[in-house]
Amino acid sequence: MDSTLTNSREATESRPLPPGWTSYTSPDGLTYYVNGCSKETTWRRPSSPAEAPQRPLARHNSSTYATGCHSGAKTGQRAETTTVALRKLTINKRPPGAVSPAKRQIKEVKETKTTINCVTFPLPGEGPEQQLLKPNEWSYCDYFWTDRKDPQGTTSVAGFEVLLQKQLKGKQMQKEMAEFVHERIKIEEEYAKNLSKLSLSTLAAQEEGTLGEAWTQLKKSLHDEAEVHLKFSNKLHSEVEKPLLTFRGDNFKKDLKKYDHHIADLRKQLASRYASVEKARKALADRQKDLEVKTQQLEIKLSNKTEEDIKKARRKSTQAGDDLMRCVDLYNQTQSKWFEEMVTTSMELEKLEVDRIEWIQQHLRQYTTLRHETDMFNQSTVEPVDQLLQTVDPGKDRELWVKENKTGEVRPVDMDI
Amino acid sequence: MDSTLTNSREATESRPLPPGWTSYTSPDGLTYYVNGCSKETTWRRPSSPAEAPQRPLARHNSSTYATGCHSGAKTGQRAETTTVALRKLTINKRPPGAVSPAKRQIKEVKETKTTINCVTFPLPGEGPEQQLLKPNEWSYCDYFWTDRKDPQGTTSVAGFEVLLQKQLKGKQMQKEMAEFVHERIKIEEEYAKNLSKLSLSTLAAQEEGTLGEAWTQLKKSLHDEAEVHLKFSNKLHSEVEKPLLTFRGDNFKKDLKKYDHHIADLRKQLASRYASVEKARKALADRQKDLEVKTQQLEIKLSNKTEEDIKKARRKSTQAGDDLMRCVDLYNQTQSKWFEEMVTTSMELEKLEVDRIEWIQQHLRQYTTLRHETDMFNQSTVEPVDQLLQTVDPGKDRELWVKENKTGEVRPVDMDI
């Protein structure tokens, strides 16, 4: 079948492509064809519209991904797609349709890939070097492909799960920050209450004159300070604490759950497809073994029956081979889908995290602004006291007091005889 | 005797004064003489040193009193004397030595003075107009000569007592101000304690990267604020409260008591002298009555015995007159002494009050200075937080987190058949 395909290729390469089809060249230099509508890809050059849909094989993820994902992506929306070609896959060097020949050859198939938790990766050193999707950006979409093993080694956490947990922790952090601010508010209110109470004290209320006025204002200034701190605590509440509490409400957790389930479902599908592949591989192996056995039997003893059996076995083997190809195709499609969703969703989580940090930064700066304001307003409560203290005048106070309290101005004189 | 004295005057006016004597003119135009050493004053022009000491009569308080009393007068020290002549007394229009003649004249003696609580004052409108000792200064020494009557009218409070009470109240005021400051200190310590405790909170401690650093600094800044307020409260204690408590310690009350007793003693002496005057006046009246009776007896019936009796009665009358003069002199001396002490001491109290007001003013300004400082130091605790918030960098935080938490960079590839 190899030769058949190859001949077809040479024969059809010069014909124009049917509508909807585009040709691409893989890094290997091999040409493959993509149907823009159905998104199917194939090695085989389509000859007419009637040939579509081809067997979807070795699907390349040439669908594109967002470059700068910060362009208005919101929770739940997909990132916009632009034309950044991914160089994700190493190409299956076997053109589509190739089946292990039913020859009695020991195939020296080098292991170039490995499947872990139903996800298929190239082995180290095998295949073309992978470039980062977003170099120098430490983007989520580049670093969370593998599942993280438990120290015990029994269970594992998906990389995506790590990203999700990060977002949930972020929500916890903002809640704790709000709590901290709340505690500060309580402290301020207590301070204000104490100052206000003390300002009403009648201590030294009997001091009169300019000194008495200055003292009265000094006591009053404590009430002014209390007002300043109360204002601070009120603004802390409305401009820092409350926003921290309400930023990304309950819906946020729901949205995160949606992401979680969506990606988890795709992994489940992948696992199911992988199971099918394993099953089909085994079935093929069985059939090939059977064919081998029967071929050996023929070599021992020619017989029509055995020849019939061999034909049957060969047909079954071919079918099993086709089944395997289909299973592998389906697997690869599903993996590609998961891949796409991983990139899109992790970019959204990345954006959420940037937004979260910037939002918190902004509101903590509001906190420091309020602190500055408070200290400034507080300074001004002392000024009237300063002014009155400056104008304290012992002479004037004496005049006031003497006018009020004098007993008599007539001085004594000598007594007459 | 009148004529004798008058002739003596005319005779001696031209002679030079003996050493130590100076002549002055009273507002009445009458000349009197003062011995600079013994401080005695007399109407009679001294003719020789041997004539000193004269009978101390109608003592003028020409001793001088401090003008500006703020020149370093301390508790217990006397005010410095400068040369300010007092125009205290109305002059006794009778030259010293004049006695009511033993004639049968109804003397038309106009009441020009009145004695209240043993202190002698001119009646309203009588005598030369009194000028204030310290005009335009509302000085204590001008306004507290009379005793203040109780509303009920039974007891009275000496003017000096009012001045003394003012000083004691001042001591009470400073104590109450110290108490107020103490309460403020407690409020500040509570506030500092609360801030410090909150700064140790582990809320949102899991926030990492540049945002985590900014948050950590924000929490720490509360401890810095606590330090500022603690420093404030410590300085309030050492620079305001403690001085207010210790300014004019227990010795002050003792000194005030000394003043109190000193002046009260002089009043007691004056009362005693006054009693003597009253007694002498009565004795003289009795003697004059007796002389009158005997003279009448002679007019009825001449007799040697009656003439003898009249001579005796006349002698006794003269003696009683002399006694009265001496008593009045002693009274006037004592009153003058009291007068002097009143002026001196009330000036000292005045100075104490000026010092008190200025001292308190100074320390309350220390309070406002500390408040200013505190607000400024407080402002600076926010600056490191501001700086770190400015440098919050979501990209850097992502890099840090991804490096720490990534699961795997190798991207999945298509499975081979």
Structure characterization notes:
Two copies of one chain form a homodimer. With 417 residues, chain A is mainly alpha-helical. Chain A has helices at 2-12, 140-143, 159-199, 209-246, 250-300, 304-390, 394-405, and strands at residues 21-25, 31-35, 41-42, 113-116, 119-122, 148-149, 156-157. In chain A, a hairpin with a 5-residue loop joins strand 1 (21-25) and strand 2 (31-35). The first copy, chain A, is rod-shaped. The first copy, chain A, starts with a helix and ends in a 12-residue tail after the last helix. Residues 1-13 and 49-105 of chain A have low confidence and may be disordered. Chains A and B meet through strand 5, helix 2, helix 3, helix 4 and helix 6 of A and strand 5, helix 2, helix 3, helix 4 and helix 6 of B.
End-to-end distance of chain A: 161 Å
Q: Give the helix tally of chain A.
A: 7
- Measured by DSSP, the beta-strand proportion of chain A falls in 5-15%
Most strands sheet of chain A: 3 strands, antiparallel
Query: Oligomer, anyone?
Result: homodimer
Précis, in short:
The structure is a homodimer of 417-residue chains. Chain A is mostly helical and 417 residues long.
What topology emerges from the helices and strands here?
The structure is a homodimer of 417-residue chains.
Chain A: H1 2-12, E1 21-25, E2 31-35, E3 41-42, E4 113-116, E5 119-122, H2 140-143, E6 148-149, E7 156-157, H3 159-199, H4 209-246, H5 250-300, H6 304-390, H7 394-405
Antiparallel strand pairs in A: 1-2, 2-3, 4-5, 6-7
Helix pairs in contact in A: 3-4, 3-5, 3-6, 4-6, 5-6
